[in-house]
TrEMBL record:
<dbReference type="InterPro" id="IPR012338">
    <property type="entry name" value="Beta-lactam/transpept-like"/>
</dbReference>
<protein>
    <submittedName>
        <fullName>Esterase</fullName>
    </submittedName>
</protein>
<dbReference type="InterPro" id="IPR052907">
    <property type="entry name" value="Beta-lactamase/esterase"/>
</dbReference>
<dbReference type="Pfam" id="PF00144">
    <property type="entry name" value="Beta-lactamase"/>
</dbReference>
<dbReference type="InterPro" id="IPR001466">
    <property type="entry name" value="Beta-lactam-related"/>
</dbReference>
<feature type="domain" description="Beta-lactamase-related">
    <location>
        <begin position="21"/>
        <end position="382"/>
    </location>
</feature>
């Protein structure tokens, strides 16, 4: 079988990245794109495969795709911009921005604790979620203020799969002197200055024809094909409706099921934990700005130092009680830890998304990286297809 030929280009010296990207389509990739900035210049910009397999529609240069939890990284970048402007103090109590939040044992929770997934506010079972529009930050915020922590904040961490984006959105709205939603803030303060297309809340002017359709695990039958991709402890937790994993990842009406992210209604709301939409080159460009000093966004040195710091584990260690594995979190990002490294050092920061997308900054090597796809499996950061592309890139800059 002839190998699929990628569209786009790589700069001389980065041909192995293109080879690895093209090989992925022999490994059952549907459609994907990868872009990498190195030392401020775009050295990889590739795309290929099918944006909509059922219609045999090709992935084009301007195709946009939902990136699920990679959205969290961009929400965290927005918080970093607000911190740089002096509007957010990572060590401040959330209640100092949002008075109604300071009840039911949440009085002393800091923004830093929340962004490290230590706040104990990860479950969906206390929330009334009946329709897709209920997932918008503006709807859910009053309910968030009444939540009770599942544990003593700061003692452990557990992935706030869906809730963390809502908390970020409401804190940002209250901290911003203009009172903007997170999506509007990100568009005006990050995407527009960088001429990048990434949206948290897809605007009406983006035509449907530009969107890739995600193919998820819609049924138990489809899940069977992806069981090998899901770590066994996570799968066991996911299948147990009483577990912290299940109560944090699944709502009773299955509104956050993968197939719903093909609906315009889902993409148009503000769901900062999972409905971000963009193209790979924009995502890589945004992270490149944070990896190379942030001059275009006028980022402060103090902010860059903060987001580059290695993660610190909570009192009871790195074990994440939702993902059921060891993960490092800091200021809304995944951070490299032993056994779960990315980038070139613990200064790197970013976030994976469902099925294997990954976007991150590596400030030590001045890298902004994005790999995005529309075939959603069980991988987090362990997607072998994305891993091979990333490995090829780092070999190119170290040889």
């Amino acid at each position: 079988m002839d190998r699929m030929k990628a569209n786009g280009y790589v700069e001389a010296g980065f041909e192995p990245v293109k080879d690895a990207f093209e090989q992925n389509f022999n490994k059952k990739e549907n459609g994907a794109a990868c872009a990498i900035y190195y030392q401020g210049r775009k050295v990889v910009d590739l795309w290929g495969g099918l944006a909509e397999p059922r219609l045999n529609k090709c992935w084009e240069k301007d195709t946009l795709v939902p990136v699920f939890s990679s959205t969290k990284g961009f929400a965290a970048l927005a918080v970093a911009v607000a911190h740089s402007k002096g509007w957010i103090d990572y060590d401040a109590k959330i209640s100092s921005y949002w008075a109604e939040f300071g009840t039911n044992g949440k009085e002393n929770i800091t923004i830093r604790q929340l962004l490290a997934h230590q706040a104990g506010l990860c479950t969906l079972t206390q929330l009334q979620l009946d329709k897709i529009s209920d997932l918008d930050t503006s709807h859910i915020a009053p309910q968030l203020a009444d939540l009770k922590p599942e544990w003593n904040p700061g003692s452990i961490h557990a992935y706030h799969t869906w809730t963390i984006g809502w908390f970020i959105g409401e804190i940002m709205r209250r901290a911003d002197p203009k009172g903007r939603t997170l999506g509007k803030f990100f568009h005006e303060e990050v995407a527009q200055p960088l001429h990048a297309e990434f949206f948290i809340g897809l605007p009406d002017y983006i035509p449907q024809s530009r969107l890739a359709a995600v193919q998820g695990m819609h049924s138990p039958f489809q899940l069977l094909f992806h069981l090998h991709e899901i770590p066994k402890p996570l799968l066991i937790g996911f299948l147990n409706p009483r577990s912290l994993t299940s109560r944090s990842m699944v709502d009773r009406n299955k509104l956050v099921a993968h197939e719903n992210f093909n609906k315009r209604e889902m993409l148009s709301i503000e769901l900062p934990s999972g409905n971000g939409v963009g193209d790979a080159r924009s995502m890589a460009k945004i992270y490149s700005e944070f990896a190379t000093g942030g001059k275009a966004l006028n980022l402060s040195k103090d902010t860059l130092i903060e987001i580059m710091k290695p993660a610190n584990p909570p009192f009871n260690g790195w074990y994440d009680h939702v993902n059921r594995c060891e993960v490092g979190y800091s200021l809304g990002f995944w951070k490299p830890i032993s056994g779960r490294m990315f980038g070139s050092s613990t200064h790197s920061f970013g976030h994976p998304g469902a099925g294997g997308s990954f976007c991150f900054a590596d400030p030590d090597r001045a890298v902004g990286y994005a790999y995005v796809l529309n075939k959603i499996g069980g991988y987090m950061d362990g997607n072998p297809r994305e891993n091979e592309v990333r490995k090829a890139f780092y070999q190119c800059i170290t040889n």
